[in-house]
């Protein structure tokens, strides 16, 4: 896998895929997840977004039950963009993917002090990440173990703080401000 990483570092996605194809499948979940993440990164480097997102989904589904974050965070240079795309398309491991996206991007950057946005609370940042996914308010509420009204309350606050007219506008605005 180290050889595949070197190929990716040298912008040689085809070389990385050749090496990855020769790696034997393992019983180790961590190794399987690392292999899927590297394959996703190689496919992304070749501009095969569909294949990259499919491999990322496989990695998320394998890692989520054991909360294996390290393969994503260690191997995932530039993985935050792929995680965001996976969340937008939808994933069966939404909560885990949101957690990884937050960790991959470090602290969610705050807008400049002169910006029109009030600082977001930690819970508002979490809800904002979920708003960028394809989940409904009821599904977000279930993931967060809160009521739908609580999610709606956070949404209204986010819309006000981001000066947004709706969910899509809030996500667009958050991306402009580098909050997502």
Topology:
Elements (H helix, E strand, L loop, with lengths): L1 H8 L3 H10 L6 H17 L3 H15 L6 H6 L3 H11 L4 H11 L17 H10 L5 H8 L3 H15 L4 H10 L4
Rg for CA atoms: 18 Å
Q: How would a crystallographer describe the biggest sheet?
A: none
Approximately how much helix is present in the residues? 55-70%
Strand content: under 5%
Structural class: mainly alpha
* Number of self-contained structural domains: 2
Summed up, the helix count is 11
Q: Mean of residue pLDDT? A: 81
Kindly report how far apart the N and C termini lie. Answer: 30 Å
Order of helices and strands: HHHHHHHHHHH
Shape category: elongated
- Tell me the total number of β-strands: 0
The parts where pLDDT drops under 50 for at least 5 residues are 107-116
Characteristic terms for this protein:
180 residues, mainly alpha, Arc Repressor Mutant, subunit A, 2 domains
Describe it:
With 180 residues, the chain is an all-alpha fold. The protein folds into two domains: 2-91, no CATH class; 122-176, Winged helix-like DNA-binding domain superfamily/Winged helix DNA-binding domain (Arc Repressor Mutant, subunit A, Orthogonal Bundle). Helix content is 67%, strand content 0%. The chain contains eleven helices and no strands. Helix 3 (29-45) runs antiparallel to helix 4 (49-63), helix 8 crosses helix 10 (148-162) and helix 9 (137-144) packs across helix 10 (148-162). It is elongated and about 50 Å long. Mean pLDDT is 81; it is low at 107-116.
